[in-house]
């Protein structure tokens, strides 16, 4: 079963959902804010994908952090920050059961599900 993780009002999430639906791929959506996220799950993703890939430094939540937080970020503090502010996790995170993919590009999704 395909699971898409993210927040529902994200434009990239909307594009990815539209692509999956247009390609008749069933999926479930996991809303970080509503459905939560465990430290174990996030740590697993960090171990597999790297905290640098998962931490969204482009969003307003990151920009609102103090310079001290931004200048001293490491794996431990990034995990803590992403658990406190799930909107800071890049999205979507797509889990096919065997592969995890961060972000959305239609060409990459087409390859993944070819």
From TrEMBL:
Top-level taxon in the UniProt lineage: Bacteria
Family annotation (PROSITE patterns): ARSC
Gene3D superfamilies named among the record's database cross-references: Glutaredoxin (3.40.30.10)
Signal sequence residues: none
Record-stated family: Belongs to the ArsC family.
Name of the protein in its database record: Arsenate reductase
Lineage, broadest ranks: Bacteria, Pseudomonadati, Pseudomonadota, Gammaproteobacteria, Oceanospirillales
């Amino acid at each position: 079963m395909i699971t898409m993780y993210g927040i529902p009002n994200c434009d990239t999430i909307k594009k990815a959902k539209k692509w999956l639906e247009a390609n008749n791929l069933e999926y479930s959506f996991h809303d970080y804010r509503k459905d939560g996220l465990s430290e174990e799950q996030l740590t697993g993703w960090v171990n597999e994908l790297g905290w640098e890939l998962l931490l969204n430094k482009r969003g307003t939540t990151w920009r609102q952090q103090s310079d001290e937080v931004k200048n001293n970020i490491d794996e431990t503090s990034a995990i803590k920050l992403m658990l406190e502010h799930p909107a800071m996790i890049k999205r979507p995170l797509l889990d096919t059961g065997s592969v995890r993919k961060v972000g959305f590009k239609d060409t990459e999704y087409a390859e993944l599900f070819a």
